## 1
Amino acid sequence: MPDRKGRYIDMVKKIFAIMLLAVLAGMPAFAAEMYDYNSAEFKDNASQFMCMCGCGQDHFECNMDGCGLNDSFKTEILEMMNDGMTQDEIKNHYTGMYGEVILTAPEKKGFSLTAWITPFAALGAAGAGVTLLVRRWVNKSRLNTDHFEDSEPKDKESELEEEILKAMVDEERKKYY
Amino acid sequence: MYIIGNLSIYLALILSVYAFASLFLGIKKQDQRLIDSGRGATLAIFILASISMLLMFILLGTSQFQFEYVYQYTSSDLPLLYKLSALWAGNAGSLLLWTFFLTMYAAMVGYSKKMVRNPMTPYIIAIMTLNTIFFYLILAFVTKPFMLLDGVPPEGRGLNPMLQDPGMILHPVAIYLGYVGLVVPFAFAIASLILKNMDSFWVKMTRRWTIIAWVFLTLGNVIGGYWAYTELGWGGYWAWDPVENASFMPWLTVTAYLHSVMIQERKNMLKIWNLSLIILSYALTLFGTFLVRSGVLTSVHAFGESNLGAYFLIFMAFMVILAMYVLMSRYHLIKKDTGQFESFLSKESSFLINNLILLGGTFAVFWGTVFPLVSEAVRGTKVTVGIPFFNTVMSPILLALLFIMAVCPLIAWQRSSMKNIRDNFLIPAIISLVIAGLLVFMGIRDAYPVIAWSIIAFMVLTHITEFIRGTSARRKVTKEPVPVAFYNLIIRSRRRYGGYIVHLGIAIMAVGIVGANFDLERLETMEIGDSVEIGGYTVTYENLAQRSEGVNDIVYANMRVERDGRDLGIMQPERMFYLNWEEPSTNVAVRSTLRDDLYIVLSAWEEDQRATFQFKVNPLVKWVWIGTYVLVIGAVFAVWKGRYGNVTPRYAGPQRKVY
């Protein structure tokens, strides 16, 4: 039994060693993957930085004549990508150099987070306010109108027919007065 | 020319002050002669503004370079059309154009047949004249259009090539007509408050004015987008630039106003809200001008840094404080005789939600636009708020807006029931879900496009349902044949069905906007004979050539385009080099179909004729432009006079001795 167990452990070790070798052998091939200007990853990277030439575009889109920044910026990003830097590392590199202003949108942390949250918070608060207001109006209307309980909900079709009839009556009346 | 030009400005300023004083005293003393004199002065101001405009056109058209403005923005080789359109290329000229429109509108209101013997008229003209005074003060003392140089330069500096585009002839004019148009409902609203006339007269009288201003704002924005798409070469039409946002914000608030006034007209409710909306819209037009002219925010559209923005900010603050004071002082009167809100499930509620979303959108755009200033003020750190922010924040808001546009038409006024809503929405909802399934089946896996196109489909279907329901209701009453019933239905209710056509236009535009999720692009350096495959197109670089156009040189590439083996012809992306301008400009080659646009930009080239191109395939862009046509048709249909329902609102407010 121990022999069988020993053989089994040896076999596992061999398989592990082969797998490790395969992974190590594959590493250079993986690392050698080269990005170019048409890579989706390049677009993701370049489009997170604002071009400062005054074009109002990010570095992926900038096509401004005479922009002295864009070509070198793109080349630099591509080099960093091909050197194996991740998107976050590239981002940190440029924000460290230029500050947050280089990014096309505020970061989702710290004070900049308020840029993202405030519109929805305001919309939510306004929505709650409108709901309360309408509830108050509806309740007030119920109190003021005794016959409210009897009034039927309006049907869209009958509303349209009523309007058409009223318009026809108005037209006829105009002919004579 | 110099003397006449300046005289026309200074005289108009003096007359504006006189008109305001005369109207003010006329109202105070109830003296009709003073009122008539003030009214006459507004006509004289309009004539003087026309003279100023005519003079400036003559100076620009005849290249009178001794005038600083002509020297700054034109050159003798410029085509006549662009020489003339240079009038709105700089600060002084564009403000002159603005003033011209303002004086024209003031004269139109002052001499409107509908406002004859109406006591509101002197108040309205006085408020509009306050605006005129401000603009003439700027033209007379801050940015003077008729300034002479010391000598006569042999040649002008020329017009920025990016502005030498048909889009730039129309875009500023449309935007200004929209901006200035909003002064009219603002003046009516404030006049109504001053006179303590709390009914909906001002709303009804200014409906056409407001819709026309809104259409011009829409056109201005879309033409600007079209210009950016074809001229700037980045393949998009909306960049959420601060200046674009500045004209989008009043568009949103006026859209909200056009919906909420229906509640006021029908139920006599939301009076304060509507007054606030029109004050806000008017203030946002001034805020937009402040952004464009101050240089506080970085923008590709800015006129350059100047102190003009500060004057606009001061004037905006003055007018808003004045308007808010009048509004608050009449608050107790406005609150009287308010109608009743009977149910959560009603058209009124859906209009309120519509307003909430539109105002939420306005706030989001405003917040994103000013956040760089907020960040700098609070923590001293500069940030950029660009396209990713606005796309992320505005997408859910605009989707919610599309959804409410779909729901709103089929809900009854006052009180609807769940059963009615179920009956009205069941079929459109099922078809929309089927469309969503089909989109997923076709391989679209992104949630946003699937949700957006399904909501758009839902919106189109509910609107078609509304047309069908209306026609059948009319047939029930009149027994007319279907085409006759349909024609009579829409022709007798232009406002409603015109509005629905506008909605359909928005839906078509939205289809195109959502298409931007599937843009493809490639950057390729090619040798002659090389081909590129993108989005089903095969583009072959045939050769690089050069030609002259007047004094300018154009370098262009011939690109043969094929799709599915079919030859689609040659496309020519260009670079234009100007004799009188340092930077060349890009002329994009666009092949536009309903399915997609093939968009080619010539980026660079080498001596051996190798050239770098940017290729883009932008799906459904044409839908954005088609949707705009539909929107304009709908709006024109809604305001067209016609035979039916064309009743001039009757003034029933307080009477005065003067009118």
## 2
Amino acid sequence: MSPAPQRTAAAERELVAAAVAAAARRLAGSQDDAQVRAVLYDEGLAWVDFPAGWGGLGVSAGLRAFAAEALAAAGVPVPDPHANAIGMGMAAPTIVEYGTDEQKALLARIYTLETIFCQLFSEPGAGSDLAAVATRAVRSGDEWTVNGQKVWTSGAQNADMAILVARTDPTVPKHRGLSYFLIDMHQPGVETRGLRQITGESEFNEVFLTDARVPDAMRLGPEGAGWQVANTTLNSERVSIGGGAAREAGMIGVVAAAWRAHPEYRSPAARAELMDLWIESEVARLAGELQRQQAAAGRPGPEGSGAKISFARNAQALSALDVRMRGAAGLRYDDWADRRPEHYSMTGRNPVYRYLRAKGNSIEGGTTEIIRNIIAERVLGLPGEHRVDKDIPFEDLPR
Amino acid sequence: MTTTDLLPDADEEALRQAVRALLADHCDAPTALSAFAQPRPDFAALRAALLADMGLGELLAGPGGRDPAGAASAAPAEPEPGPALAGAAAHELGRAVAPVPFLTFAVAMAAVGALGADELVERLAGGAVGIVAAPFDSADLAVTTVEASGSASTVSVTGTITAVPDAQAADVLVVPARCGEDFVLVAVEAAAARIEGFPGLDETRPLADVSFDGAAGAVLGTGDAAGEACEAARLLGLALLACECAGLAERVLEIGLDYIRQRRQFGRTLGSFQALKHRAADAWIAVMQLRAAALAAVRSLSAAPAVPAGGEPGAGETEAGDRAADDPAAEHADAAIAVLTAAAYGKKVAVHVAEEMLQFHGGNGMTWEYPIHLYLKRAKADELLLGSREALERELATIIDIEE
């Protein structure tokens, strides 16, 4: 984030508190979400760590939780953090870092939900190897023409704009030939199709780009710097500083509740397994709590990088036990209809759904294997993977 | 459930650094390995340096004690040395697999302190070593076959306790015993007991059979008070064990990582193989989680009353997180949850990481020369200290209502 003037932690808190007081005064008890969002943006409470004038106050990111608490204490409804999640959590931090003033004007629209974003990164041929994206953007004058296929796009059917990574120069090695765009989703060259998953529902989409257009003014960051810009986006995905989770939050709570309610599910072996997973869930929660407290105190540690691996492993093991411990009753599903859920919960529906959906936890947002590589290399200082493709022009790579 | 503060504390860090520095000077790997020599060194100088000179003994004595030498500079004027400080020391002792009876001594001190036996507390704070005469794997220190008979204050004790950790280092034994229908805790001079050491898996925490044949003892407490003192002592011991395991696992991981960064086969360092990188990453996650859990355990003991008020811990509770913060029984149950979680997890992680790092060492991991086996032996034995992992998980299950 752009460097803030050096202020003491106490001074930063005072700044946030003053903004909260001003917002509460202006809102005068209004509960209208659109009005609340507009005022909070205006007072720098949208993302307190963003620069003043762009939805922030230029204070440390650790104060986001403090701001949310102060708002709640002042009787201001705290906007749903899950609304426009891609826009709020991924597009906005990238725009604020790389954007022109014209692009930064989108920040207010993102926060007020006027412009909903989705993400066009992954492709059928570029999953973990994101730098291998093959979607081409070709420039003519002040405009780019985009052709290719994107996948695993949540919310594409409701999105107004997308953050897009596309190849603008195939003659250089893969990391150097990418550029990053903010593309309009409402145009003839963009076609969105639901992507049916193993749960039966279509939570994600495939997006087909056929001669789609994006003005050069909506290129974010320099031409060829798409990889660096995308990394800002992906790193933001991992920085979430919220309140601490309660004990038995998440999948462990669902399975423990079923265990308590149904003596017929119980066996000594299942209990040993459940207790092991209860402890695993609790220590993962405590590690998250430690990380949250450190981040809030302005001393973030590397602990967060392990959180997703533990979360995925525990969710998978617990949901697997949940199906098995119920006997044949655990096999019952509600229906296999192709749904397009607007809202979904990984702890919702039924044991079969939870078991199947949890399989994605170790894949989406960075596979467990890739995260292990990152921990081994960046935290533990072990050598990097052998990369045979890093110096070869993208167009010469076997694909 | 109250949220435990998990941020670093200046006093804990100062003590941690002081203990680490002392161990670097006086307890390197060859020193720890010498615990396996015949005859076994008694490590009296190391023990004195830590417990008496550095003041860890006084630290364990509680608020009455002087602040430990290592924390003196950072400590406030009126330090309240608590489980969290002891946890910082235990973490470092675990890192060094130090052959020092700190944990076992802490358990004895907690029991004696809880009963307000000030004279004995003072003696132990001054450098005498006290150990609870209970089996290594005892999950309930009040379970005993030792018989006591005599007056209300002075008794004679008879019986045998097998596999008592650190008994040979003891000056005083705190003996759980039955006196007719009553449970009593009795202080017996080690000189009045027959203490027979025997070779065990982990000589850094050596075992001995202890027997009494009409030995004279002073009654420290009886009945519920003595039982509650045992429970408080056991919980402290388990929390410190979690810290020791965290230190052990952290250090053995460092040793394993150093090794795979240097060792070359097939023209590459071992650490460049993804099969090992992924296992190293998983080990790191486990160690990081264990550090958080162990810290939460000792911090929650610092916050909670030593004994449950009004009944069994967690009695009648159905939701682990659903209690008032000002309810002492609930706070005790919260502390018990934190301690049992950390101890059960520590037992699992320490042995797992030690086994993984031994495998990272290949053939060298099987040699007497490389220190990995010291960590493996301590970790494997620790699976049983103060109750097996399974026993702790069953106990935890009852508190959080995961009944069979």
